[in-house]
């Protein structure tokens, strides 16, 4: 099965890119002169402050239980963060964010431990297990862990990986502006990537393997138990497509050369061969895959 989803204009995409559209409009006002630009910026500040005051009153009237419920929605949580109204402190938000990506890290045979969050906004992490040596460990950090932490705590200044990897894999998150939680899928990455919703993945049954054409890139998604895992549609052994591959327990077999890849361990194959995994995570309840920009062509 291959599903072509060229645009998918939906409410999720609309609100996740709202900050970018607002910034574009502000930038266009600059052409009318400094005065017009400043008036436009002031208008945005006034509107944001008005909605902030409204949110604060809603929370005060609704009490702690309502605040907890609202914080579970990505859009509302983003607005609460903008106005410093989120009911959870930064340590709790970072910890919860890491819990959400642990199943994905487990598919790499590893885990992540939160060491601490310092007063000056530094998150220190330690990777456990084999994910720290997996060829996709960089993508795991930048596209899964970093994405989750940025969305949950946009005020974080730096993410550091302690241990042997600390010197090689620092990930710096610069402080952003007021609209940061609403820009570029909720934040800006240090690498040019974009998250694409693929809701059809939710319909896969355990053991299913399906192909998807997402934003010009062909993906292979297999469901291992409750966990959907995404890979580029490319066999590194025979240099061909994996279309028609079948999953037997944890092994995905290439239908052309017969090579078996262990999807429970990030697609590891024989003699150092490896499938190219892509982060596939739930974002506001919708399965979404991270792809680079510009999208890489098939090998």
TrEMBL record:
<dbReference type="InterPro" id="IPR034904">
    <property type="entry name" value="FSCA_dom_sf"/>
</dbReference>
<keyword id="KW-0479">Metal-binding</keyword>
<dbReference type="InterPro" id="IPR017941">
    <property type="entry name" value="Rieske_2Fe-2S"/>
</dbReference>
<comment type="function">
    <text>May be involved in the formation or repair of [Fe-S] clusters present in iron-sulfur proteins.</text>
</comment>
<protein>
    <recommendedName>
        <fullName>Rieske domain-containing protein</fullName>
    </recommendedName>
</protein>
<keyword id="KW-0408">Iron</keyword>
<feature type="domain" description="Rieske">
    <location>
        <begin position="195"/>
        <end position="289"/>
    </location>
</feature>
<dbReference type="GO" id="GO:0005506">
    <property type="term" value="F:iron ion binding"/>
</dbReference>
<dbReference type="InterPro" id="IPR036922">
    <property type="entry name" value="Rieske_2Fe-2S_sf"/>
</dbReference>
<dbReference type="GO" id="GO:0016705">
    <property type="term" value="F:oxidoreductase activity, acting on paired donors, with incorporation or reduction of molecular oxygen"/>
</dbReference>
<dbReference type="GO" id="GO:0016226">
    <property type="term" value="P:iron-sulfur cluster assembly"/>
</dbReference>
<keyword id="KW-0001">2Fe-2S</keyword>
<dbReference type="Pfam" id="PF01106">
    <property type="entry name" value="NifU"/>
</dbReference>
<dbReference type="InterPro" id="IPR001075">
    <property type="entry name" value="NIF_FeS_clus_asmbl_NifU_C"/>
</dbReference>
<dbReference type="GO" id="GO:0051537">
    <property type="term" value="F:2 iron, 2 sulfur cluster binding"/>
</dbReference>
<dbReference type="GO" id="GO:0004497">
    <property type="term" value="F:monooxygenase activity"/>
</dbReference>
<keyword id="KW-0411">Iron-sulfur</keyword>
